Batch of 4 targets.
Target 1
Amino acid sequence: MNAVLPKIRFRDPQVEMAHGAGGKASRRLVEGLFAPLLFGDSTEPLGDAAHLDFNGTPIAFTADSFVVKPLRFPGGSIGELAVNGTVNDLAVSGARAQALVVTYILEAGLPSEILEAEVRAMAKAAACASVVIAGGDTKVVEHGKADSMYITTAGIGRPIPGINIAAASVRPGDKVLLSGSIGDHGITILLARGELELEADELCSDTRPVLPLIEAMARVAAPGIRWMRDPTRGGVATSLNELARDCGLGVMLWEDSIPVRDVVRGACELLGLDPLHIANEGQFLAVIAPEYADAALQALRESPGGSEAVIIGEMREEPSGTLLGANGYGGVRAIDMLVGDPLPRIC
Amino acid sequence: MKFVDEFRDAAVITKARDEIRRLADPGRQYRFMEVCGGHTHAIYRFGLKDLLPPNIELVHGPGCPVCVLPMGRIDDGLSMARDPNVIFCAFGDMMRVPGAHGSPLEHKARGMDVRIVYSPSDALNLARKNPDRHVMFFAIGFETTAPSTALVLMRAKALGIQNFSVFSNHVTIIPAIRAILDSPDMRIDAFIGPGHVSTVIGCRPYEWIASNEGRPIVVTGFEPADILQSIVMLLHQIRGREAKVENQYTRVVPWEGNHAALKAMAEVFELRPYFEWRGMGFISQSALRIRDSYAQWDAERRFQTPGVRVTDPKAAQCGEVLKGVLRPAQCKLFGKECTPEMPVGALMVSSEGSCAAYYNYEHRKHSVLTTIGAAARAATNRAATDRAATVRERA
Amino acid sequence: MCLAIPAKVIELFPGERNRAMVEVTGVRRHIDIGLLEDDPPVTGDWVLVHVGFAMSKISEEQALDQLNTLMILGENEAALEEVQGYGLGDTT
């Protein structure tokens, strides 16, 4: 089923922080400005990576940039995010990353030991993800201009045999699978910034390469994998709203089945945030044909790091383009995309 | 989470739901207003409307302190922070509220020092840590929040902290309820009373609603079981032809209120003769300003502000929605010119405003949902059992 | 105005009678207990926290009472009367 996507226009007078938050404003920018001017007349929904063909050789290609404050946080740092983020973008597009190139934009005055720590972190993360860092570039900008450092990684890889991802192939009745607990990364960062004066001992970012899990799943369920995404900025809610919109179907989540660590839940309740809107850096969503769903789930649970995987919902015919959440006592709510960054509230 | 999960338990909620269905007279319509924006948010977040019989309608009241703040006040607050020496602090709820020249977040993007704080204490701490800067705290909220602002001002005075001020936009709940009841188009049968405001003011201030206006009012907590139990209690009163104030939220709300909180408020604040409520016009004795004894910490006195009244477009029907005369979707601008991303009127700017809540949680649901209930419950139970099994395996 | 969360007092500070450390499922924060000066909480008490201030102590007894009331709803008429009686003027 092909959804006809409404034309989106970018009319905002200036760039705002919301445009980078991964929600509706970001979508407006990408689909209303970049896509029509840069991507030609393609009506294909935008995915996590581009799948290109070079005279019969299929290649997957993507890029991502990393802007995070603070640079180091429990569970990782910008260096690891920069490697894992791009490896994961390729993985959820159905490709195995082979090589990355890295660009650094460094702020003058950045202590060398901090830079070295990040470079080491990247090297380690690349080895862990079995990916080569093949080259890169560096620029230095004036003090005050780069929040210490910004990193971009571009990644190239080969499609995993047997996987064919397309929103258009999603059908009512397909199951929605989640690889594990949500909200860890976003809440870790929020707490690490120190502005809200919250502390939590056992919380750290979930950054990790998800490729091994996806490959485990593909080994038993490749023909049934319809769609995948890594729910980074904007969280699970944003990714699933994008899915619903791209395929024109409805998504029904069983909210009580969604794994959230107690500490993440506590922070979210305290601040009035919804875990479904919080960024993750080591999880993925997959839509699987029903006849393959149990096998896919089993394969994940038996893999290292996949024990928390769970089926959290399913695709429905109606309401079209909408993500719904059902709780355990018959209440249903529509779950919208994020407007901008998730903001704590007191009301 | 203790004191939370028990009140979200499916078995408990199902009992309350069934009791509501048993008590509601199928021959009549019930219109219950929940005053407080937090209740509006909870009702939508937990899908509680799906649990009620069709003849019980929940009408959303004006208890959203962000929504009722006139745009001009936001502009006043932002104008204070034009001086680069000033740090503008506010709760997250305020950050996306548009002023005439943009929201606080938009001003931040243009270089103003705007910071989100979780507590007014954090704003005072910021002042202590930045003695060369002036920290201005944009205070909003009903009586739930005003005592905290008051205590912080008392601490600032006691510690002699000079580089700190508060722009008070605190409002009080009783005049708002009075304005609802005075409205000629109003058809509310009973009230789901504010729970957290009542931890401060207690339950006595609502007595006139029962005795003079003949409307039952139940002071209510914010979990699904609380709200449903409150509806049970309202139905009982209506059945028994009673009208009285009851406290459903006894685990937290003292009938007499919080004396220390009321004392702090009285020490620091006094009532303004009148104050403009967005969508409702001027209401007398409905807002708090800082007393002369705390003038040094009163941002309204320390800064010159434009004080311009900015009126909402005539087409925006916020007032009628606020009073429960119109439902959000009945406003001509709803979902078209006025959305949470580009709010025109008061009730879209905050996520707990009735229009925003309705837009975010409800309006894209269709009647197909009636078939979802049983299947979703079954699936939820299956998935929860699955997950419990996984957790046990891991442990 | 309304977002307030139950949290457990895990630490008090002898030199600072207005400060306490509370915890909600592993998340900790300093809060101000000045609004409870008439009946300050002790370690182990649960309090309702709003914008970094304790607004009220939470009565476990009342909470259990309420849950019991809800669970016996619909079982018999006596239970219904208890619901009505329960709401009247309890001044904890």
Target 2
Amino acid sequence: MDVTINPETGTLIREGVDSILNPFCEYAVEMGLDLKRRYSDIETVAISMGPSQARTALMRCLEMGVDRAILLADMKFAGSDTWATAFTLAETIRTMEGDFDLILVGKQAIDGDTAQVGPELSEILGIPQIMYAVGVELIGNKKKVRVKREIETGNEIVEVKLPGLISLSKGPMIRSVSSFKEILDARKKELRVVTAPELNINENELGLKGSFTQVVKIFPPQVKKTGMVIDSSEPQGAAKKLIGFLKERKFV
Amino acid sequence: MLIIDTEKCTGCKICEKVCPFGAIFVTDTIAQVQDNCTLCGACVNSCPVEALSIERKPVPKEELDKFSGIFIWGECEEKDKGIAPKKVVRELLARGRKLANSLDQALTVVVLGDDKLQGLETLITYGADRVMRCQHKLLGSFTTESFTNVISAIISKEKPSVFLFGATPHGRELAPRVAARLHLGLTADCTGLEINEKGELIQTRPAFGGNIMASIVSPYTRPQMATVRPNVFSFGNPDNSRKGEIVDFTVILFPAVIKTKVVAIERLRDEKEVNIEDADIIVSAGRGCQKKENLKLIQELAEELGGVMAGSRAIVELDWIPHTKQVGQSGLTVGPQLYIAVGISGAIQHLVGMSSAKTIIAINKDPDAPIFKVADLGIVGNAMEILPILIRELKKSVTF
Amino acid sequence: MLSWSNGKIMHEITSEIVPHVDLKGIRCIEDYSEICQDYSPYLCDESKLAHQGAQYLFFPTNEGELSAIFKEMPKRDVTVTISGARTGLVGGAVPYGGAIVSLERFDKILGLRYDTHSKEWLVKAECGVTIRDLNNWAMKKTFPGLSESGSAETKAFLEKYKESQTTYFYPPDPTEMGAALGGTVSTNASGARTYRYGATRNWVRWIRIMLASGEVLEIPRGKYFATPAGEFIIIDSAGNETIVAMPKYTMPLTKNAAGIFSAPNMDLIDLFIGSEGIFGAITEIEVALQKWQNPISIVQFFPSDDKALDFVITLRKEKSIRPEFIEFYSSHSLDLLRKKQKEDPKVVGMPPIPDYAKSAVFFDLQFNPESKDHDYSKLEEIVYRCGSTLAMSWAGYEQRDLERFKNFRHVLPETVNTIIAERKKKIPELYKLGTDLAVPDHALEEIWGFYKSILEEAGLEWVAFGHIGNNHIHINIIPRSLEEMKEGLSIYREFARKAVGLGGTISAEHGVGKIKKEFFSIMFSDKVLKEMKEVKNALDPGLMLNPGNMLDM
């Protein structure tokens, strides 16, 4: 079920809609775990910012095999646009995981779907970004990455020295399944909750106050036209109707 | 203002090299900044010891009005052995022209490239008052780092009130990087851009996969940045009588700025092949086509109609077609005259990529498929049985 | 001796007449060729059994219209086959001539109430409501039409229901949730959750049933009981009395959908539940709901079928662990699924089945992901004793994981159907052979050993899966030729005899209908069959209703 707008009140209807780990972020986690399987000394940390939904997403990451997690949860983060989100994440990473080598993110969130947090985070941290990745390899004694990425005309193979950020577009065709043991073990792993006071950020730079963009109105999309639907269980008739239509509209 | 941490500074002179304006230099192993610094942030980004930072305070209201000009990134692509502006630039020019007229400000297109740049004069016939040409051999192919540096430098110097990018794959890599460097508000995938009574840019976009529309403003930052998907705005015929100027912007770039190295390219879209974003007739396949072999029918139908084949995310994930032909929210946005959806259910994430098609035909076995809500003609049936007959009939009706 | 309660005689019940309606006003297709051309789905059900023609197709919208049909058809010497959602697997709705009466228009929810005595929420619905809709509405707490059309009392209950933080559901969960409620009551349908919650019978609290006379019996559970001699007296509106004697036999100690219910001092409502429409058409039903708790789905892999069975037997005995259901996938089943995954991974929807997985047991446990104390050491111990570990499992509790695990459970029978459909193209007479046998708990290992030894000797292609918690394992033989099919059928007869011999049933879920009558006679002696026929003769002397179902009259 999708989030929709109540046309009378103009507010979001979020009840009954599941919060899930964003599919693209799940690709990022799968890639991180894939690298961890290939090189045993890699530690993986999942980080997320948000209300309780973010917690379930992090739990899923831990169940998938991520070593530990950080949850940024504080009312002061509420209302963050992509800038404020990237800014808050950057500060957290800088102070708590400063010696990171690689940040993996999903291409875009299927709710906000701006795809902006990844690049903004990279810029604030001053690291290179590689977007639209579909395959990642560590090379040069794990000091560089070689990434296959999708571009408009095909694919590119690029290399860059770490630390860096990679945004994933694609993952395994079938989502992985955790074992019952992994689900139980996840609950024993470290899930650190970080609040605003722990970050050295001025209150005015957090949440809504720290955002550069503001939503001034939300409304339901225009209802599209409904055309003519023909139930043709018989292919010959359907093909005839199609040709007639194409001729009428001058495509043939 | 630019802050230099003298304790951290090692006098390595990298900042000197990357500054587009020659505003920073090293004396006595410490960096110093001059008055012509535009706060573009290139040096901050390149300093290896993080000795440089820019304190960006919110712009006071009086200052906001000093920003003037509608700017558009004139993204280019390969064309006939050179590089020329993409179709989306003309779409942005059409909308930009309206914004410029509302605000009574000039409309500028910023084009980055090497000596193979061509076709810039046409930008004026499509509405630009000025084309800023930034030529450098390191700009011959797109890299985030070099393009970010140049655009940030231009913004810092020219102080436009609005800066628009096409929400193309490159546009979506570049715009947020620039926004983060200059601490600007950025709205992605706008489907509407208007000026309100206060002279602010109202940026309208879909959210939650398209189930909701949101109107957004950037009240405290200039320029107001937005990306717009291709095929959202339309443009009219060029006006050859229009006057405008092409000016050159001096680009200072060093190879060290570019950190990512391209080691190989795999072309999946032939040079001759039409980009589905530009196609007028598209026949699109979904999971309902059942197997990869069945795509032969889609291809044949496309050819008969003089169009191209595309597909939904579902079949790209199954590796039936390359991502270059993917239509949808996480793929490309198309705006053809005719879109035939075969075996596509029409989830909102797909509709977002094709609903601006002028005429839509849908064939699907499921009478409740949401695609029928947007189709001008919907056929409930087995496409794999209908298509061979349709193709046969089309072949017959070709007259010589 | 008569049975008494509050001075009322408990074994007597009077039927009521319903207001008269003119037959001409009832929507009816009167031409067989028209039925064949435009309404062909009404001539068959999921069993794919060939029909034997039909003269009329009626669409009554209320009891008055149904009664008019029941009164008129005997005058024209026409039998009646009741049709619901036609999802049955034994040909129950397939017409053998006569009139088809579709009850699809009986699709309203009639009421919701809380019974303070039994402390249950109860929903009343017409027979044509599907159990999928019933369950969805109950869980989402919206019943279409009820808030507008219900009485003030119903509206008050609806408010209270919505306010309650608890979620409720309807437990009987046959794989085919598109089945009509009336159909599930007529066949005493079961699903995976029958392991924990019992069959449909356990959840039916009240019915309205229209007899062949066109008059209606309203039967709440707990009101009408048989005499010590096992008799009921049914009195019609004119005062005529019919004595109905219950068949006397001991029912198998298993999940059972074969035959007429029998028990000492039995409740009248149980006569009609599971009677496959041969005594009357059920028009309205009131069922109880159960509290829902979010589960976790677990697929536990084992190194062999024997170890998997060990696990099931041990798990069942462990009182501290209460699975919602226990399902089984044999070694051959997993191999078939692996093949399907290679062809079309998205259909199976799960990562590749690990090589070490030679058998699988699938169960749901109530699970709260937020809980601070998860102690599954007992489960871990049992799994370990059966040669496996909790690391060799798949588990998920998010809504979308529960859905794909559920999908995974259904993929195997669907895959078998697809293979049969393919083979049918070359050999049109082929069809899937499936068993629906169940035995009591103590006989599980014995029957499994029996199945395996015979099938392995015969060298046929087969898979085994199903509701192992109820000792109800489906054996699907996938014949490659007509000879293999014949051999399969004779093997099934052997299986049926063995199951009955061990105290089991020939139909745990699907019912008898028109297809399983041969096996039916393995289960019941001639004497008992005669007794069942006597009930039919008493209640439907004109033999109008559902000819061909269960009993050959």
Target 3
Amino acid sequence: MPLGERLVRARSNTGLGQDDVANALGVSRTLVGYWESGARTPNDRQLAALSRLLRTPISVLVGTDEPEPEPDVAAMMLRGADQDLPAEALPGLREFAEFLERYSALATAAKFRVRGMHESPFVSTAGFESADDARRKAEEVRAYLRVGLGPIGDVDAVCELLGVTVYRASLGSDLAKTVSGAFLKHPHIGFSILVNLDMTSGRRRFTVAHELAHALFHSDVPYLVSTAAKSPRERFADAFAGEFLMPTEGVRRVMEEQGFGPRIEDPSEVIHLQRFFGVSYVTALVRLRQAKFLTQARLDAFKLVRPVLLARSLGYEISDEEYSPRPDRWRLERFPQRFRRLLRLAVRQGVLSVPSAAALTQLSIDEVTELVSAEVTAAAPLAEERTELEEFTASGVLGVA
Amino acid sequence: MSSGSPDSVVDTVVLRYFLLVDEIELLVELLGSPLGVPRIVFDPEEDEDVPASARSEIRRSVAYQQAASRDPARDEEARATALRNATRLAGVTELHAAGRIVTLDLTDAELATVGRLTSPTGCAAFGLTFPLDAGEAACVAMAVARSLPLATDDGDALRALHVIAPRHPYERIRKLLMRAATDGRVTRRQANEIHDEMRRLGFWDTHAPFPGEAPG
């Protein structure tokens, strides 16, 4: 089979169009058409870039190897979803499945203990899957983690503590049609979560908590794909995530302390609560309505508020990812912290070289170099940090347990 | 377009670090002019607006360092270092214009070797647990097929080279610096200083060329 036909097949497998390929490679759509028809041939740099983009080895593109006959987990996940999903979600699902395989292979080669969760410590029984059950279980998980009623600082760190792997990939920005997240049980890595990077930061955080619910309570199935379609399990996971991130009693306590309520009357109060618990404005509205701190009339009125502008006017620092996702900025950060530690360890142990690590992760040599040699290149502490340390030393608190 | 016949094939790592420490002329002196680099490593014909993920490896490095030089999360010194790195790496274009570097295109046979070296399943035949980076694989394939010495500091690429052609000549950065001192191009102390500077920029080889000779 000629190169052009192999390119067409690889592109079809990823669900990308000729326009997508052209944009990713910085060439015209016409040129991509020429490559596929065999009228022209991509140069070596373009071929390497096509291999990365289409997640197809060069050997398959040039015809020295046939595609792997392994089961396509990503395609199964796509087909297994509760609604028809756009093909644009497939590359991200495939990236997730491949990442888990590579993580597993690297951990084995480096003799690294992944410490993944393979069995939930929580009880899950049919018939106890109502929204009230979900909220009760969120309280149980909070109690297990000993986080009280306060905000969950870093939801990724919570997952790592539990042994749940979190990976991020682009799955498409039309959230009514595409995937917001997914849960997959990997035989070696354990419970793993995928989060769509094409969502605002608040929604990503909610998705991590939503997928965590699947991991902790729905691990009787090998995978679950979360979409806008709401099966009972999806509704359970939504209710869990809301209570987990913004517990009713915690909200009540903050409202009392801040002098809000007993009913929320002003959208600025929603902003304060949203910021305190680190959720999106919409999540905060829904949670406040569910807990009956907000009337339906107020909810309807507050929906019209522009929360980022209001938050800024109230003095909150705004990150641009709160209103405009930038998945291209997520490079090394897409990977879970534990995997990043493994990558450093593996390179330092000589299990793989820096360029091989770059190939494995699709990062650049510069990114891997920075990750691996962080200690070597780290600048001296800033003057302000030195002063702080000196103050601690002078106060005698160092050395006191 | 390629011009001249190279005396060696140089990988991204070697090219990158000699550019970063502003000693690319020393590398050219040691390996002979022009240096041969695969198009995956440096493509003089790629447009400026090619997305980062589709760029040649050296241009990807330039883009990364340029972005780092504007990154508010880095302190002033780190941003200045990144800007200097970007400027030095971008010097590869002038070297190419001056004919000191030539870009090499893979033949069909070399491309087949690259395919095997970068294949998740095929790479095991070369003693590799994980596939080689495409740029490294191209360097190995070209060096062997064209009987040119390979300049690399990628342990995985060398492992594959030893399987494909056990006696094939190769150069590592430390070895090059030792030769530079032996040839009288630099002093032993200067060789150590160059190595030390590379180390500060992230180079992973912890052994100085002349361990008894402290860098200045």
Target 4
Amino acid sequence: MAWETVLLALIVFAGTSGELCVTRAMKIIGEVHDFRPSSLLRVMFRAIQVPWMWLGVALMAVAFFSLLGALSMENVSFVVPVTALSYAAGALGGQVFLGERVSRRRWLGVLLVCIGVTLVFLGRK
Amino acid sequence: MTSSAGLHLKTFILIFFMILFGPLGNVSLSKGMKTIGAISLHQPADLLNVFLQILQSPFVWLGIVLQLMFFVCYMVVLSWADYSFVQPAGSIAYAVVALQAHFILKEPISPLRWAGVCVICLGVLIVGHTSPRTTEQK
């Protein structure tokens, strides 16, 4: 039970921090306008030179293996809905670390997600 | 006019594949991990052991391929469609994963869990209906 909670928390927090790091890296690289394979390769080459990208990918790998661990002990219809909590972590992280403005409407959506996850937890047995 | 209708069709087909492949990927990962059984780590060597078992599971690989296909559809559709249009459509995936878990994996799902999943879909839908960019661009 405790081990499982740690895995669920890792999916949400490592996954979201990973995405925040990748977002930060991609903002450093700049907006992608050209989608030809050769230019995409150049974008990838620039991406691997940004440390934030490596940190992001490492965190996302941690989240993926935590997902596998959680799926080994819990049903997928429980684990996947709970990972929706990353919308809450993402809104918080986007505001705190990336200076994004999160609208009231978006917080309402996040609140609904949290209520839904609570229901999923309560409906466990 | 025709090209606009074509663009719509293309968008809906890709979104359909997205909400099919993403959840199927999770269902397949779940099946693979259930076959391996609950992971217990008592000593460092167990970690390597589990890792090798994961690499040998065909359902885990199928799950990874399905999630990659989901990701490719997602990236491709984002190359022309608005993020604020595609992301809310993805909220349906939370309902689809519950349906697939119920019908493919025969997972029992209590009414309270169904209610929770529906509320999550609604929440994700609302999150997606907000502006995709609020920071100043240089």
